[in-house]
Automatic annotation (TrEMBL):
EC class name: isomerase
Keywords: DNA-binding, Isomerase, Magnesium, Metal-binding, Nucleus, Topoisomerase
The protein, known as: DNA topoisomerase (ATP-hydrolyzing)
Residue span, Topoisomerase 6 subunit A/Spo11 TOPRIM domain: 175-346
Subcellular location, principal: nucleus
GO molecular function: ATP binding; DNA binding; DNA topoisomerase type II (double strand cut, ATP-hydrolyzing) activity; metal ion binding
Superkingdom of origin: Eukaryota
Record field: catalytic activity: ATP-dependent breakage, passage and rejoining of double-stranded DNA
A single GO BP: meiotic DNA double-strand break formation
Gene: SPO11
Gene3D superfamilies referenced in this protein's UniProt entry, alphabetically: 3.40.1360.10, Winged helix-like DNA-binding domain superfamily/Winged helix DNA-binding domain
């Protein structure tokens, strides 16, 4: 459960109070930060299901620059929580670039503070900048009241940094399509794909998706209850990315309930498509040893027991020992992806 605003503010106040008390006694201020470098200091909160930092502290005394950075970020967080507004970690960095020196130091300190106060980063009103893009038949309001319209065919919209604050979602889309790579996403956008076939929404996490892209797919599924398709390369890396949207990742397994969409369907590129469409041999790439290892480890994952068709496709790749990118379809015909492949797949149910 999210802590109330008052509780977060009082936790920050108690940290500041301890520092003031130290200064009043002419002592060096002490900051206790939990040790985040060892898994042994993390435990699962049985009430919330979230991973929490333990009480094993990394040490008390830090050089004065580091203390100044922490205090500055604490003051920024205090104002954000108090005014119920949000900022990205990038905004925090630009608040005082000279003091922070690098974006990485801000990222580390925000996570340290999150652990120290025992609250999630989102509860601190500091968010990561989204890398994902979204386009298609979709309008919504951001938490601050900004109206976002994703229907422009010329440019995509960045996925919100505060997905949980989105409201008033309006869409007549018939499906959502997750696109693995930005290059494919831009191609579909240029070809006006979202309007040509039937109204739809496209989203890309530009490779391995960030949390905001995954939250957005989940939000669309919860709100619209329409089919969610995945369009990924016919290679082990593409399969893994699709599995992150559908089943989650080990790193974020404690938040799987709010990040995964088990209804995601595999639209393409299927290993069986490569044979069926007779994709030119020059477009096929041999599987590397690393690919084979990834494929083997994917097939051992427990969720594939309930996905015999997915398993069959991966085994086909194991046997054929070749992979292909979505762009390889352009070797059949330049507009094959948007004019033939996707319309046929969506019309005749060519997904798994």
């Amino acid at each position: 459960a999210l802590l109330c605003q008052r509780e977060i503010l009082s936790r920050i106040e108690s940290v500041i109070l301890r520092i003031v008390e130290s200064l009043s006694k002419n002592e060096a201020p002490v900051l206790e930060l939990p040790n985040r470098s060892s898994w042994s200091n993390f435990f699962e909160d049985s009430f919330s299901g979230f991973m929490q930092c333990g009480d094993n502290n990394a040490g008390h005394f830090f050089r004065s620059l580091f203390k100044a950075q922490i205090l500055k970020i604490l003051s920024v967080i205090y104002r954000l929580v108090q005014s119920n507004s949000y900022a990205t970690k990038r905004d925090v960095y630009y608040n005082n670039t000279q003091l922070f020196g690098s974006q990485r130091s801000v990222d580390t300190i925000v996570d340290d503070i999150s652990c120290m106060l025992k609250v999630s980063r989102r509860a601190l009103h500091v968010m990561a900048t989204s890398k994902g893009l979204i386009a298609g038949d979709l309008c919504y309001l951001e938490e601050d009241g900004t109206r976002i319209d994703c229907r422009s065919s010329s440019a995509a919209v960045s996925v919100s940094s505060n997905v949980s604050g989105i409201r008033n979602i309006v869409s007549s889309a018939k499906f959502v399509m997750i696109v693995e790579k930005d290059a494919t996403f831009q191609r579909l956008l240029n070809d006006d794909f979202c309007r040509k076939l039937s109204p739809c929404i496209m989203i890309t996490g530009k490779g391995v998706p960030d949390v905001n892209s995954r939250l957005m797919v989940k939000k669309l599924w919860d709100t619209l209850q329409i089919p969610i398709f995945a369009l990924v390369d016919a290679d082990p890396h593409g399969f893994e990315i699709m599995c992150i949207y559908k089943y989650g990742s080990v790193a974020m397994s404690f938040e799987a309930h709010s990040l995964t969409v088990p209804s995601v369907m595999w639209l393409g590129l299927l290993p069986s498509d490569l044979q069926r469409l007779m994709v030119p041999k020059r477009s096929l790439l041999p599987l590397t040893r690393r690919d084979e290892n990834k494929l083997n480890s994917l097939l051992k994952r427990p969720y594939f027991a309930s996905q015999p068709q997915w398993q069959k496709e991966m085994e086909l790749m194991q046997q054929s020992k070749v992979k292909a990118e979505i762009q390889s379809l352009a070797d059949i015909a330049p507009d094959f992806l948007t004019s033939i492949y996707l319309p046929n797949k969506l019309r005749f149910g060519g997904w798994l």
